[in-house]
Write a structure and sequence with these properties.
11 helices, 59% helix
């Protein structure tokens, strides 16, 4: 365990609290936020986050794959791959990094700082993966999986058009014409270990999509996916516009 300067240690303790993570070796978290521009200003032998980023990328891809495989049992390999690409990319991870507030904790060189590196999407995305890599090294796969799963849930809820987040995308597209979707659970049944839900989505009082799922959220996502197909069909046919 490497001792950190008192002010940096206190800063990282605040970040841990906001992330809901407790590091046994907080210097790993410090390393995960240390850009190579900062390291190079302190000598070519200084470490930076790239090795942790490499590891975190592998962990994240595994967790996202596992999440999507379980969350969408009816989706094909192609659909799952598309959804994963929607979650594990620079734009999505930079969005997540901003939600987590990682930019404020990055250690940057003076030039990178002046160039706006603290809000540069590539750096923010790297930081997410590096922090996850640090969690994996510090606490193992179980904790890293739980952390990544929580982050994926956040992305699915907040990132329009992310892999599987059909509700956000549908709402975004309907708002362009001043409309909003309305969701109804038409049926809920089955034993506790195998619940089944049927959701419907209405636009202007008309049912435009239905979907099944093992949870209300999953059923609503499936209904929204069908509604997006309906919306695309209307856009492609001028006689059905409006």
């Amino acid at each position: 365990v490497t001792a950190l300067p008192e002010d940096r240690d206190a800063q990282l303790a605040r970040l841990e609290a906001s992330l809901g993570i407790r590091f046994r070796d907080r210097s790993l978290l410090d390393l995960a936020l240390r850009h190579d521009s900062f390291a190079h200003e302190r000598g070519h032998q200084a470490e930076h986050y790239e090795r942790l980023e490499f590891l975190g990328d592998a962990v994240l891809n595994l967790v996202v794959g596992d999440y999507l495989f379980r969350q969408f049992p009816d989706h094909s390999e192609g659909q799952l791959a598309k959804q994963r690409a929607g979650l594990v990319n620079e734009t999505a991870l930079a969005h997540l990094s901003r939600l987590l507030g990682l930019g404020a904790y990055l250690l940057l060189g003076k030039g990178e700082e002046k160039g706006g590196g603290r809000d540069r999407p590539s750096l923010l995305a790297d930081a997410v993966e590096a922090v996850l890599g640090a969690v994996y090294v510090d606490s193992g796969y179980g904790v890293a999986h739980a952390v990544a799963k929580r982050w994926i849930d956040e992305l699915m809820e907040t990132l329009p058009g992310s892999g599987g987040d059909h509700k956000s995308l549908l709402q975004e597209r309907l708002q362009e014409s001043g409309r909003l979707p309305k969701y109804l659970i038409a049926h809920a049944g089955g034993p506790d270990h195998a619940k089944a839900f049927l959701a419907r989505v209405e636009v202007d009082g008309r049912v435009v999509g239905e979907g099944h799922g093992r949870s209300k959220k999953e059923a609503e996502q499936a209904a929204a996916e069908r509604a997006l197909g309906w919306l695309e069909a209307r856009r492609g046919d001028p006689s059905r516009a409006g």
